Every structure is written in C-alpha cells, then in structure tokens.
Amino acid sequence: MRHHSNRPTDHDSGIRGPVKRTHSDWHIIRDLLPYLLAYKARVIFAILCLVAAKFANLGIPIVLKQLIDALDLKDNLPSVLLAVPLGLIVGYGLLRFSASLFSELREVLFARVTQHAVRQIALEVFQHLHALSLRFHLNRQTGGVSRDIERGTRAIQSLVSFSLYSILPTIIEFILVLGYFAFFYDIWFAAITLAALVVYIIFTIVVTEWRTHLRRTMNDMDSRANQKAIDSLLNFETVKYFGNEEFEARRYDESLIRYQSAAIKSQQSLAFLNLGQQAIIAVGLVLILWRATIGVANGTMTLGDLVLVNTLMIQLYIPLNFLGVIYREIKQSMTDLDRMFTLLEADKEVSDAPDAPNLKINNESIGPEVRFENVGFHYDPKREILVDVSFVIPAGTTTAVVGRSGAGKSTLARLLYRFYDIQQGKILLDGQDLRLVRQASLRQSIGIVPQDTVLFNDTIAYNIAYGRPGASFDQIQSAAKAAQMDQFIEHLPDRYETRVGERGLKLSGGEKQRVAIARTLLKKPSMLIFDEATSALDSKTERALQNELSGLARNRTTLIIAHRLSTIVHADQILVMDHGRIIERGTHADLIEAKGVYAQMWQMQRQQADEI
C-alpha cells in the first residue's frame, strides 16, 4: 500500500539505528490516508453522521429558545396553547437523543476503519523490520524501536479520535453557529465569535509549536531511559557477574533525571497555555453576553434569544476549551507517527531484484554446488573482511573453514544467507547469483547450527518446531532424539512443554545448542552450515553429536566453520583463512603433510588435549 523512495541507508549517512527525519504534518497525513480510505463507504457514512449530529446539536438551543418564548403566555390566551410548549419539549428531547445517536453511529462506523489502519501499519512496520539488513539490527536499540512502534500505533487512534471526534465537529459547529448569528441576529455576534475563535487558535498554535520541542525532548529522554533499562535487563547475567547493579541503576537514573527536567518544563509551559486560553474564552463570552443583554433591554431580543446565545456559546466553548490539549495531542501524534513511518523508510539495503525467481537446486537430495568467485566484502570501508576469496564446494561434499578469530570465517555463512551484499565478485549456488534470486527461497534451502543459539521465550517443543512450523509432535520428538536431547527432556517436569526463558537462559549452552541442532534436523535443508556447532558441548556429547552431524552431512553440501580441528578431519576440503584471505587449502592429510599453518594449529591442539 505504501510506496517507498530510495533513501540513503543508515551506514551511508553515518547514522546508526533507525533513521531520524522529520516530515511535515501534511506529508504524514498523506501517508496515513491510504490506510484509512480502505473502507471508503464507512468513512463517508461516518462523516454524514457527524454532520447530522452537529445539526441536531444546533437545533437543541433553538428549540429551547422557542420553548422559553412560548411559556411567556398572556393571561387572555387559551390554555390549549400549552400544547405548543409540550410539543417543543418532546422535540427538544428528540434532538438531544438524535445528537447522541448520530455521534455513537459515527464512532461505531469508524471503529473498524481505525483498527484496520492500526493493524495494517503495525504489521507493515513489523514485516519491514524483518526485511532490513543485519547491519540495521546490529545497530538498533531494541527498547527505542519497540517504543517507537508502540507510540506510533497508539498515535493513529489518537489522531483519528481527536480529528474526527473533536476538531472536525467543532469546525462544523462553528460554521453553523456563525451562519445562524449572522442571519438571525446583529452582525456583532458573529464578529465577536469569529474574532475570539481566530485569536484563540492563533494563540494555541503559536504556544503549542513552541512547546513541541519540549515534548520531543521529553520523548527522546523517555526512549533513552527505556533503552538503558531493557539493555541492562537483557544482559542481567553480565550485570550480576560484575556486581554492577548500582552502576546500572545510576545510568538509568541519569536518564530519568533528564526526562524529569524535560517533563517539568513541558508542564510549566502547559500551565501558561491553559491560562491564556481561558482568558481569551472569558473575554469573548463576556462580550457576547453584553450584546445579548443590551438586545433584551431594548426589546430587539427576547429572553429566549438570550438563553439561545448563551447556550450556543457554551456549546462552542466546551470543546474549544480542550482545543489546546487536542492540538497538542495531534501534534504529538504526528511526531510519533513520523518516527514510526521513518522506520518504514529505513533502506532495506539487501532487497530482492524485481521479479526475482526462486532458487532452484539441481538435486535436492545432495544440495547445491557453492561457488565463491573473487569475493571482496567489508562492513566498514576502512576494514576489509574478505579479500579476493575464491573457492568451490562441490555438490554433496563437505568443506571446513578454520582460522584465527576475526579471519572472516563466520562472515562466509552470513554472506551465504545474504544478510549482506558483497562489494566485489559473485556467490553462486548451482550457477545462480544469490543477489538475483528470492531471499526467502535461498534461506529455505539452507540450515544453520550457529555458535550462539538464541531461543524464543516459549516451550522446547515450540523452539524445535521453529525449524518447520506446523511439524507434528512425532516429528519434533524424532528431531530431538537425533540431537541427543530426548533423555534430557524426559527428566524435565513439563517435558516438551517446558519453557526455556528469555533467550533460552533457563537452558545451559549445550542444551541450547542441541535445540538448534534439532530444529535444523527438522528443517531438512538442501545445504548445511555448522558454525562451531558443538563448541558448547561436553566431550562425550560432542562425540555422539558429531556422529549424528556427520551422518546428516554425508552426501550433502555442507560448510563447517570450526575451531576444534578434530571435528573436521573427515572434510573433503579444508580452507585455512587469515586476515580475510585463504592461505591454505586441501584435505586434512594434505595440510598436515604441507607442514604449514594448519599443521601448526593441529599440533598445538594435540598438545593441549594431551595436557588435559
């Protein structure tokens, strides 16, 4: 529904996290309208109900005037004329009921429109966040982004509510009242009402615009405090390890102090705004009643006219009294919507080509051929991660990559998943450039067991089934058994329904890694990537799982990123990386015989194992 223009990415502009831009109010309304107009008929009927309610509201004081004038009976009039006031009383009641009826109908009709817009925008933002590159998510602050989405969806309801239920009805009622005053009374009534309205609106807008930056500052402080709190709680164990509870509390309190200072300034400016508005309302009301009193005194107006004028002004000034609050909330809603729409404008960086086809694997049973051709890549232009890397993983074979930390090993897996686009060369799967196929089909064809396994705060069964949503319980059990975790699960009180906690913190590192292996087994991908897949396991479990992984990888295209060389001696090809380059390649036997870097690493690990 929403069309996005090509905008500079965060990393290009030097901005980290969500892009922060400010659009005009009309720009934001233009972006919101397509979502609201999805139910055009409902919108039209809701506005018609709004207008009908305002006409009924105008009729109430007019009937009240006629009732008061009708009760001013002369002694010589027959009592049968009392039927006239009785009819007016009934009409008065019907008009009041009609005003309420049309107002409620308007809200009932528009409720679906508002909720549909909230759902669609929230869903679109959620999907867009998942479509953004890994770079964005590594730079983002989870607390700030979640708060922006929360405030943005709430702002839609506030904006619709205040504009449709307050601003627009007040404008219509002012037009009706001004027209009535100008047509039936002295032109001064309309002039005073219009002048008071203009002065009130100008004062409200000027002061509220001045206050807007205070509200934005307050929101920024609120977001920063929330970011620090969530970041600290997510790293609860680290805080405990170093005994830094007081340090975290001080950091959080510093943000709260800045928020408190901004909130106090905002409240003080609000008091000034309210005082000025009340002064304008009071002056306008006094002048209107003064003109009406003079009219009654000189006989040009009746007591009913005086009541009519007073009632109309009260009806106008009651919503007008909240215009400052409403305008401020609308401006705040605009700001919150702008922040959420800005998330939608964050450049995806890694996007599917127009009409990109699905990845086609020549032989699903053994997997694709993987080919890196002169690949160059960097996260930051100042630091090269991969330099002219070329290698081939023949279909159905296993290639292992070893090297020191920072050599670029894990980057290979990220590039295969197309979390980033390379700056030089090509990566081909069965001859197809990864940048030219649909990312969803690419990732569906690859399964990974990562070194750092993060689980959802749900049950063990849910986390295993995440490899293939909709899998049967028997399939989940089979995958758990293959991952050597069925005995561990059987000893849990709730077994497969045991909840693993935030990020899986209720499980040990080895248990989490076995869950990761189980859900990869359940996925049954065409290609496998093991990124230090058994690094968190004890030796006994590692050996058992290694046999399972070897069986799984047999005759299937597999990339193993390893630290323990003993786990990759069976590999068809071993690549040794250093500073983003491949410095050695061959089988285990070939590399040992070459007596190069790999042989030195092998000898070192053998000595460490002997010492243990």
TrEMBL record:
Q: Which residues form the ABC transmembrane type-1 domain?
A: 44-332
An MF annotation (GO) of this entry: ATP hydrolysis activity
Q: Which domain of life is it from?
A: Bacteria
What is this entry's stated membrane topology? Multi-pass membrane protein
Q: Does the record carry DNA-binding as a key word?
A: no
* InterPro entries per the UniProt record, alphabetical: AAA+_ATPase, ABC1_TM_dom, ABC1_TM_sf, ABC_transporter-like_ATP-bd, ABC_transporter-like_CS, P-loop_NTPase, Type_1_exporter
User: What keywords is this UniProt entry annotated with?
Assistant: ATP-binding, Cell membrane, Membrane, Nucleotide-binding, Transmembrane, Transmembrane helix, Transport
Q: Membrane-spanning residues where?
A: 43-64, 76-95, 159-181, 187-208, 270-292, 312-330
Query: Which SMART domains does the annotation name?
Result: AAA
| GO cellular component entries | plasma membrane
Q: Which GO terms describe its biological process?
A: intracellular iron ion homeostasis
* Pfam (any one): ABC_membrane
Query: What is this protein's record name?
Result: ABC transporter ATP-binding protein/permease
